[in-house]
Amino acid sequence: MGLADVGRSFRGVVPVDRLDRLAPLLASKEGELSVEIAFDLDERRIRTLKGSIRGVVSLVCQRCLGTLQLPLELHFSLGIIGSDDEIARLPEGYEPLLVSGDPMKTFDLVEDEILLAVPSIPTHKGVESCQADHVNQPAPEKENPFAVLGKLKH
Question: Are 67 and 28 in contact (CB under 8 A)?
Fold first, then answer.
């Protein structure tokens, strides 16, 4: 009998400094994230894990290398499966969560969801929001060396 069979739920906080795979993207490891996780059986007898993650993580802006505060308000619905063959039977709205016989680590699950939500290249919205003393400007246009040939056509 699993957690979904008895409808267990958990609520707590996850310290950002415990999320090792997220660490290279962070400007600061300070803070905590509020996490709620509920295991259940849905009306089709599919074991599910639904949850939410709320909080703020401090990332490194890839434009100015300053601190970028990314607010998180994540909600997820996972269908618990025992093999890849069961993916096809999951109804729409559920992402697959492959569970082997090993115990699932809550921190890993939380970290997976955050990594999916973090932009691949985090930057401040708009150049004016960046903290750099300078921001790369487009290079001035150089004279086209073939412009002379264009004049010959006329």
Answer: yes
Closest C-alpha among 51, 50, 47 to residue 6: 47
Angstrom distance (rounded) from CA 3 to CA 9: 8
Domain boundaries, the chain: 3-153
Sole residue written with tokens 């930057």: 123
Instruction: Determine the Cα–Cα distance for residues 83 and 99; give it in Å rounded to an integer.
Output: 8
Q: What are phi and psi of 9, to 5 degrees?
A: -140, 155
pLDDT digits (tens, 9 = 90+) for 67-84: 899 999 999 999 888 888
> How many residues appear in the chain?
154
Q: For the segment 85-126, what is each residue's pLDDT rounded down to a tens digit?
A: 888 888 888 898 888 777 778 888 899 999 999 998 888 887
Strands (E) across 82-115 are located at 95-98
- 9-15 and 32-41 beta bridge pairing: antiparallel
Burial 105-129 (b: 16+ CB within 10 A, else e): eeeebbbebbeeeeeeebbbeeeee
Is pTM beyond 0.85? Reply is no
d(Cα 80, Cα 47) in Å, to the nearest integer? Answer: 5
